[in-house]
Amino acid sequence: MIDGQLQWQIRDEWLNKHWFVTLQEAQVVIEAWRREYNEERTHSTIGDVTPMEFIHNLQDRSRAAPDSTSLALV
User: Fold this and answer.
1) How far apart are CA 72 and CA 68, in angstroms?
2) Confidence bin at 67 (pLDDT 50/70/90)
3) With 0-12 CB in 10 A as exposed, 13-18 as middle and 19+ as buried, what is 39?
4) Over the stretch 1-57, which tens digit does the pLDDT of each residue have?
């Protein structure tokens, strides 16, 4: 399900600005927008980074964190 903010952005950024002649044209334009939105545009809700950067940062942090499930002998 698409949240309200994203739905508003989709409508504002391309549905209100484009008149699609074919379904294929709409799919190409929408896919380009989706890639830009998810891979290039920063988002304030995740620290002004792109979603891809956010995912990479989380993965890096989880790799750097000590394994909390293992027992250490002292």
Assistant:
1) 10
2) low
3) exposed
4) 456 677 777 777 766 777 888 999 989 988 998 899 888 899 999 999 999 899 999
Q: Which are the contacts of 39, defined by CB distance < 8 A and separation ≥ 6?
A: 50, 51, 52
Domain annotation covers residue 67: no
CA triple 16-22-25, angle to 5 deg: 70
Residue 5 maps to a domain: no
Q: Which of 45, 23, 26, 22 is nearest to 34 (CA)?
A: 26
In terms of residue numbers, what domain contains 27?
Answer: 22-57
What pTM does this model have? Answer: 0.55
CA–CA gap between residue 29 and residue 14 (Å, rounded): 8
CB within 8 Å of 20: residues ≥ 6 apart? 26, 29
